[in-house]
Design goal:
- By secondary structure, the protein is an alpha+beta fold.
- It folds into 2 domains: about 230 residues, no CATH class; about 80 residues, no CATH class.
- It is about 35% helix and about 20% strand.
- The chain contains 11 helices and 14 strands.
- It has a 3-stranded mixed β-sheet with strand order 2-1-3. A 3-stranded antiparallel β-sheet has the order 5-4-14.
- Helix 3 packs across helix 6.
- The longest helix has 20 residues.
- It is elongated.
């Protein structure tokens, strides 16, 4: 089912589409009507009483209500302008990630930190007010409504919390987790995605002189025209590339050349080389712009999650405390 969804094929009757949209609308309404707080925002349900310990940007640690923390993660990790279904999918993925890390000991007693390079990004209300300005009330209410609509929901595979990885833009094809970790996950495999082409980072390019490219790759300028692709990943990214007597992994080249992704090709123009990239990020798991595109196409959050994490099922956060 994941392939059909990501490939954009029509696989369900009109009645099911209408039912999914109706269910989404009802879910949002319920999330809003659960009550307004003093700031005029939807109150999160009883699941907010679940506490996790977080390592904050200043290095301190303290407990916080899970649902409150997830709202800050969603606000940091995904544009508030995205479709509600995409925001809901992000909330479930973020919640699943946090609880899988709980007890892992990566940050001592804390489950996660607020560094996107390590765990997940997070923003406080104060930061969001500065960033969003006059749009803060509407954006924050939209984020909280998405979190409330999925309160307590996590993703499981064979009864265990999943590694709910996500990226900004897969560029048309998600990636197999084995390319990052050296071992696969049944729910993190390469699939086509037909829904992220509206991303501003869908494609990009970098231009270097042969001398600068050679410096970055620790080669001689005359060796740059001899770059040769040795192998590709399941997701169509550069796996291994040869230059001179050296071999490079695609992820290493992405870092050395400051490319948006390892899904790149190159073109020689005189004394310059142009690298053309598709997507932004590692490409594993949920494609955030793809989720937004699926939301625009009328898919519900659960369908988005099933597409990017095939074979998973819904579970409850309370079962992992």
């Amino acid at each position: 089912m994941g392939d059909d969804l990501l490939g954009g094929k029509s696989w369900r009757p009109r009645q099911r589409q209408q039912a999914a949209r109706l269910a989404l609308l009802l879910g949002l309404c319920v999330g809003f009507l659960l009550g307004l707080s003093r700031c005029g925002r939807p109150e999160l349900p009883d699941a907010e009483s679940l506490l996790i310990r977080v390592q904050w940007p200043d290095g301190s640690q303290s407990p916080v209500e899970l649902e409150e923390f997830i709202a800050g993660v969603v606000a940091a990790e995904m544009p508030a302008s995205f479709q509600p279904q995409a925001l809901q999918a992000q909330a479930v993925a973020a919640r699943s990630y946090v609880l899988r890390q709980k007890g892992a000991g990566k940050h001592g007693e804390a489950a996660v930190c607020c560094d996107s390079a390590c765990c997940q990004a997070w923003r406080s209300e104060e930061e969001l007010k500065k960033n969003w300005g006059a749009d803060f009330p509407a954006n924050w209410q939209k984020i909280r409504a998405a979190v409330a609509a999925t309160a307590g929901q996590v993703l499981l595979y064979e009864g265990e919390l999943i590694d709910a990885l996500f990226c900004s833009t897969c560029g048309g094809m998600t990636e197999d987790a084995a390319e990052l970790w050296g071992s696969s996950r049944p729910y993190l495999t390469a699939h086509p995605c037909a829904y992220c082409s509206h991303s501003p980072r869908y494609s990009s390019w970098k231009r270097y002189s042969l001398a600068e490219a050679a410096s970055r790759l620790e080669l001689q300028p005359e060796q740059i025209p001899e770059l040769k692709l040795l192998s590709s990943t399941a997701g169509g990214r550069v796996a291994l590339l040869a230059g001179g007597e050296r071999q490079y992994r695609g992820t290493e080249l992405r870092s050395r050349l400051e490319l948006d992704s390892a899904a790149f090709s190159w073109l020689l123009q005189g004394e310059e080389i142009i690298f053309l990239s598709l997507g932004y990020g590692h490409g594993v798991g949920l494609c955030q712009y793809g989720a937004d595109g699926m939301g625009r196409a009328g898919y519900a959050a659960r369908e988005i999650l099933s597409a990017y994490y095939p074979g998973t099922e819904q579970g409850q956060a309370a079962d992992f405390f």
